[in-house]
Amino acid sequence: MNLTRRRFLEACGLVAASICGVAATGCSSPRPAPPTFPERDLARLLIDEMTAEEKAAQLFIVTPEQISGTELSLGVDDAFREGLQAHPVCGLTYFDGNIVDPAQTSTMLSDTQAIASELGMMPPFLCVDEEGGTVQRIGGKPGFDSPFIGDARDIGATGDVAVARETARTIAIALRDLGFNVDFAPSCDVATSESSNMRRRSFGAEASLVGRMAAAQIEAFEDEGILCCAKHFPGIGDPENDSHASSIYSNKTREELAVQLAPFVAAIVAGVPMVMVGHLSLPQITGSAIPASISPDIVQGILRDEIGYDGVVTTDSLGMGALLEFCSPGDVGVAAIEAGCDIALMPSEFDAAYVGLVDAIKSGRIPVERIDQSLMRILTLKLKSFPELFDETIQEELAKTR
Q1: Predicted local distance difference test score (pLDDT) of residue 2
Q2: CA–CA separation, 31 vs 249, rounded Å?
Q3: What is the CA radius of gyration of the chain?
Q4: Cβ(168)–Cβ(156) under 8 Å?
Q5: Residue 11 lies in a domain
Q6: CA separation for the pair 299, 370 (Å, rounded)
Q7: pLDDT tens-digit profile of 258-288?
Q8: Residue 315 is assigned to a structural domain of this protein
Q9: Are strands 344-345 and 60-62 parallel, antiparallel or unpaired?
Q10: Domain of 335?
Q11: Torsions phi, psi of 14, nearest 5?
């Protein structure tokens, strides 16, 4: 979708003023100075130009393989280009197999942004999970300069926010230099049990410590130009099992959940641009086994309304076992958006999820105003974070507000 200069000016109401200024008669008043447009106003103009299909695509982050239809994507080819043209998604997320060496990775990511620009689509989020410890794709990998980063548990054990800040800075610089712009980190989960599946990925068992460490990392990511993401709301530090494979439950009441929520509040105060909602079921709070990621009670009720977060909210991977028993492949994206999320991450069957969301938009099942809310959050964040990736018309308008 290209927003041409003339369309942009028409939308801003400036074409008529320009014509009026040129005409010798009928316009005696001085020509008004062009107004400036902050990111939200520009986002509004972009949203108004989008079709239902483009809107739906912009609410998904998927793997490059889900775009190209290939078994493993190591770069941009014709299949990827065609897939991206058909589905101009919000972003792409990469895993170990996609990342071979620095030259290949940099080329893959820069080519992806170049193709997106050629196709006239929104610049995509290029994402990776790089927490350190057991979850890192680059740190310590042969051929890469980035050092191996220890577990969050070990970082938290130092009690020193400077250590947390510097590890995040190291990660952010490595990602930025390769061409990534989003890191799905830090973990804000409080590992209150030694048997917790998150015990190594959590900064510790004390909510205040986890909050301080997470906030320090968020600040470092921002300083180095990487968007980060507090996860896994509302906190999955208690369960022993893994949501990748099966459902995870907590019988905590709303009051008892406060410990797990506290680090997310600290992250939000620190200005975290994105929050990832996990697949924890909280039957004592919601009255059902529905996972948090597709629960309006959790996403809209607690994260949006109670805590007051109005940033970008993504689900955890919608291909995880914890989701499959609650949603069909074609309904999982719809359920996530209806719950209050902005981004549906890696549904197991992207084509089915995409068609399901397009149908929900066209039928009015999800009001267009609700869809546009999510698009406003996403596009505003993109315009603020990497304006240089948008076309020249938009860059010029953004420059007026700098």
Answers
A1: 55
A2: 64
A3: 22
A4: no
A5: no
A6: 14
A7: 999 999 999 999 999 999 999 999 999 999 9
A8: yes
A9: parallel
A10: 49-399
A11: -100, -20
**Amino acid identity for residue 217 in this structure:** Q
Token pair in block for residue 43: 């986002």
pTM of the model: 0.91
Please say whether the beta carbons of 318 and 352 come within 8 A.
Answer: no
Torsion of CA 322, 325, 328, 332, to 10 degrees: -30
**In Å, what is the CA distance from 14 to each residue of 29, 37, 59, 68?**
15, 12, 31, 41
> At residue 93, what is the residue type?
T
Q: Using one digit for the tens of pLDDT, what is the confidence trace for 75-113?
A: 999 999 999 999 999 999 999 999 999 999 999 999 999
Q: Is residue 28 part of a domain?
A: no
Low-confidence ranges of the chain (pLDDT < 70): 1-37, 239-246, 322, 402
Residue 25 corresponds to which amino acid?
T
pLDDT recorded at residue 402 = 66
Q: Nearest CA to 64 among 72, 54, 56?
A: 72
Please enumerate in sequence order all residues whose Cβ is within 8 A of that of 382, keeping only pairs 6 or more positions apart, or say none.
122, 123, 125, 389, 390
Please enumerate in sequence order all residues whose Cβ is within 8 A of that of 246, keeping only pairs 6 or more positions apart, or say none.
321, 322
CATH number (domain holding residue 342): 3.20.20.300
Cα 65 to Cα 362: distance, rounded to the nearest angstrom: 27
Structural tokens at position 130: 């790089």
Question: Residue 395 has what pLDDT?
Answer: 82
Number of domains in the chain: 1
- 291 part of a folded domain: yes
Which residues are CB-contacts of 349 (< 8 A; sequence separation ≥ 6)?
A: 329, 330
Buried-exposed string 88-124: b where 16+ CB fall within 10 A, e elsewhere: bbbbbbbeeebbeebeebeebbebbbebbeeeebbbb
